[in-house]
Amino acid sequence: MDKFRMMFQFLQSNQESFMNGICGIMALASAQMYSAFEFSCPCMPEYNYTYGIGLLIVPSIWFFLLGFVLNNNVSVLAEEWKRPAGQRSKDPSILRYMFVSITQRSLIAPAVWVSVTLMDGKSFLCAFSINLDIDRFGNYSFITAMSETERIKLLARIPCKDLFEHHEIRIATSRYIKCISQACGWMFLLLMTFTAFMIRAIRPCFTQAAFLKTKYWSHYIDIERKMFDDTCKEHAKSFAKVCIHQYFESISGEMRSLHKHRSYKNDSDDDDEDNRRSDEDKLLGIRVQDDMNKVLRNWHNCKPALALRKENIDGEKNGKLNGDANGGMNGHVKGHPPDVEKKEWAVYYSKV
């Protein structure tokens, strides 16, 4: 279990690199899937175009959506977009940055699939074989004597070598269409590469302060969500442990009274006492179910403002000040600033 926990923590700390690796694996999987995929053109005028174009587009959409599903930041983006503003306003630029970052990774596998499909040319041949001008490949009298319907049916059978009798015509037309398909594939790769180059070249021309701000706060939102989940797990574990201990203590009073007459105390009892104190500390003063439900509800409906406060107070006023300052902003408690010098305050503002 420790090894799995360490691996999980490593993946969490290197999530961006891990997602880039996942996208690369998906891209390689798309190419391998296409090579293992059995291409079967229907060779019918009514279905050739739909099958050929569908083979090019539908798997690309599936890979794109799969990239969104495997990206953990999608839930973070949706949660930040739908949450109530509360005390913390929402910055549209951060939402745009997160969406663009997710989209860029999700486009890798579809781009590889489209490129491999165009380079192979089978789907292109199936989709556009009926649009060929057969007269460009030679003077075939038997084709000229056919009606328009028979001619279209004949052209639709070109991708199927077991249905097309004229081998020479099939080889010539297949090479012609595959040549066009490969040219489109190289143009697509050139366009994608040029677009990526322009994005990387133009981005430094804009204000870097805005970019750094959006990048910082997008990372903050992700880290805050993870730490809140971890804190909730620790609190739930401690809450359950203390609740179970109290349950057993309430029903085993007689047995505990007998153990109190013993003249010695085991080291295990000391360890249990230390663990119990640790669990009590992790409860953070929240010991009632309704209070915990209120905490969770308020976290979603009214997240605290991002204004950090440095306080120097003595131990006697600690509990009182913490209780009064839960809803305070920028170090003001009940409308009155504390009696400390201004230079001791560090306040940070954000529009997240």
Automatic annotation (TrEMBL):
Keywords: Ion channel, Ion transport, Membrane, Transmembrane, Transmembrane helix, Transport
Stored InterPro entries: CALHM
Superkingdom per UniProt: Eukaryota
Gene Ontology MF: a single term: monoatomic cation channel activity
Any one Gene Ontology BP term: ATP export
Family, similarity comment: Belongs to the CALHM family.
Region (Disordered): 315-338
GO cellular component: plasma membrane
Compartments, as annotated in UniProt: Membrane
Transmembrane segments: 21-37, 49-70, 183-202
Protein name, UniProt field: Calcium homeostasis modulator 1
UniProt topology in membrane: Multi-pass membrane protein
Primary site of residence: membrane
Originating species: Pleuronectes platessa (European plaice)
